[in-house]
Amino acid sequence: MMEVGRLCIKTAGRDAGKKCVIVEVMDEKFVMIDGETRRRKCNVRHLEPLTETIKLSKGAAHTSVISEFKKLGMEIKATKPRKAAEKPAKTRAADRKKLAPKEEKPKAKAEKAKPKAEGKLEKAIEE
Known about the structure:
Blueprint: E1 6-10, E2 19-25, E3 30-35, E4 40-43, E5 47-53, H1 62-72, H2 93-99, H3 107-126
Antiparallel strand pairs: 1-2, 1-5, 2-3, 3-4
């Protein structure tokens, strides 16, 4: 019953309710499927075989599966894998120190200290 080209409906998992076709028979329990579902290995217990078949060769490419589905009048959404966001380049701690703006010590405290010292000297001289 499970042969290459057999149309099925997926009954379990994330792709449940979607149509697929058997592309390759792995062994008596597992088959490779493709179609509205993701192309992957699937347990035959998770498939409901339909009476229709498609003429496919063993291990047929995804493009040939799509063209056969179009001949039957079924549209398959072409999904592309999502592109990963660009990650900023990793910098080492030494590089971060070089890139970080240098903090200047506040000069106000240093300037205040000088007049106080001069003020004490002046007081000492005046006495």
